[in-house]
Amino acid sequence: MRKTAASGEAKVAGERSLLLGIGISSVGIGMYVPFSLVFFHHVTGLSLTVVGLVMTVTGLAGLAFMPAAGTAVDRFGAKRVNLVLYGIRALGFALYPFAGSLPAFAAVSLVTALADRSFGVVQQSLIGEVAQGSARDRLQASTRALQNAGMGAGALLVSGVLALWGTGGFTCTAWGNSLAFALAGLLVGRVRAVRAVQVGRVVRPTAGAVGSLGYRTVLRDRPFLGLTAANFLTALGYSALSVLFPLYLSTLPAAPDSLTGAAFTVNTVLCAGIGVLIASRVRRSGARRTRSAALGALLFAAAFVGQIVLGTLRPGQTATLIALLAIVVVYTLGELVHSPSGGALSVSAAPEAVRGRYLATYQLSYSLAGALAPALFTALLAVDGRLPWAVLAVAALGAALALLRLERHLPAEAVHAEPPVVRDTDDRPVPVTAA
């Protein structure tokens, strides 16, 4: 890596190619995720019931495969596994139009789901493999902004394709998606890994220990498990906009039906437009990652409390519209503050030799929260429209408190974007080294 004179931040070799690849693959994801059931129904010709069942089963199998993906990262490197997953996704979408029978669709869907579910683990590991210090925070922010922009562009693109060619355009979309993943893989292949210079008090396992201990290394690391548990509490909040918000609007007579789409648009535009700027401001402030992630959780809590107040007061339509959009803005700011710091915190807290296993464990907190959210939110909503927001507010506050309490137990290089500096008796700066 090298440093720019203007910012002093390390630049990653092949960074532009990496980010361009992420953006292109996000366009591909946006081309099918918003229409997933209908997409595969028209591409394969199978019934919606069959498609839904296969997607559920293969999705669960994908979750079970994530620990194996973490092990593969530790053995072969994140870049190699990343390229393999891009290749599998490209091949899978190229074959979908030919998977017209149940066994064929199930086989292609299973292999593709394994790659899709594991991709987040591998991509996070890749950021840790190619970047150090504050460069990790910057890449986290840039990645999230590009993912939002790319998915939005992909959804618009497929809408245009369908408007021109009807449902037959889904087949062209599948092949276009395959091309996007293949091109993204070629671009990511240009990035270069670096050997991290470790600082702080954490003890790193040796290569031999990796093979003998495996996931026992992760399970013995109580601070990291605490970090994962705190992220689970925050991850429930990440599910609120897509799962709870549309359901909650039905309990507010003054809320227009079009507000769900408007809320998603506001969230996507802000994430894509100012995500990097917000993360840069947080990073340049010198805030510890634990504290900036906790601030993001507190902003989540503030947005959830706002929903409780709104559900209690129930103002007129205009006031409700303004209040809801303001709450979405606060919620999105929480997301923009928490995501880069939380992601870089998890990557940097993971020992290099077993980073894949650590991040596979951490990413399960997102997957588990996403799986539990629909049932949890609907059950609470049936009791009172404000109850799920209250639970989310308490969870976010608990996450913020846990992050602050974990600060002194996590490695110094995880808490600080740049190594902390102390001064000797002659007032000369001395970097903190491993204990």
Radius of gyration: 22 Å
Broad shape: globular
Fraction of helical residues:
over 70%
Q: Looking at the chains present, what oligomeric state does this protein adopt?
A: single chain
List segments where confidence is low: pLDDT < 50 over at least 5 consecutive residues: 1-8, 196-212, 427-435
The overall pLDDT, averaged over residues, is 85
Count of extended strands: 4
Number of helices: 17
Main-sheet strand order equals 1-2
In terms of DSSP E residues, the strand content is under 5%
Describe the structure.
It is a single chain. This protein has 435 residues and is mainly α. It is 75% helix and 2% strand. The protein has helices at 15-30, 36-44, 48-76, 78-95, 102-130, 134-165, 169-188, 207-213, 216-219, 222-238, 240-249, 259-284, 289-313, 317-349, 355-383, 387-406, 412-415; strands spanning 2-3, 10-11, 421-423, 429-431. Strands 1-2 form a two-stranded antiparallel sheet. A two-stranded antiparallel ribbon has the order 3-4. Helix 5 packs across helix 15 and helix 11 (240-249) packs antiparallel against helix 12 (259-284). The longest helix is centred in the C-terminal third of the chain and has 33 residues, at 317-349. The protein is globular and about 55 Å long. 47% of the residues are buried. The model is unreliable at 1-8, 196-212 and 427-435 (pLDDT under 50).
Write the SSE topology.
Elements: E1 2-3, E2 10-11, H1 15-30, H2 36-44, H3 48-76, H4 78-95, H5 102-130, H6 134-165, H7 169-188, H8 207-213, H9 216-219, H10 222-238, H11 240-249, H12 259-284, H13 289-313, H14 317-349, H15 355-383, H16 387-406, H17 412-415, E3 421-423, E4 429-431
Antiparallel strand pairs: 1-2, 3-4
Helix pairs in contact: 1-6, 1-7, 2-3, 3-4, 3-5, 3-15, 4-5, 4-7, 5-14, 5-15, 6-7, 6-12, 6-14, 10-14, 10-15, 10-16, 11-12, 11-15, 12-14, 13-14, 13-16
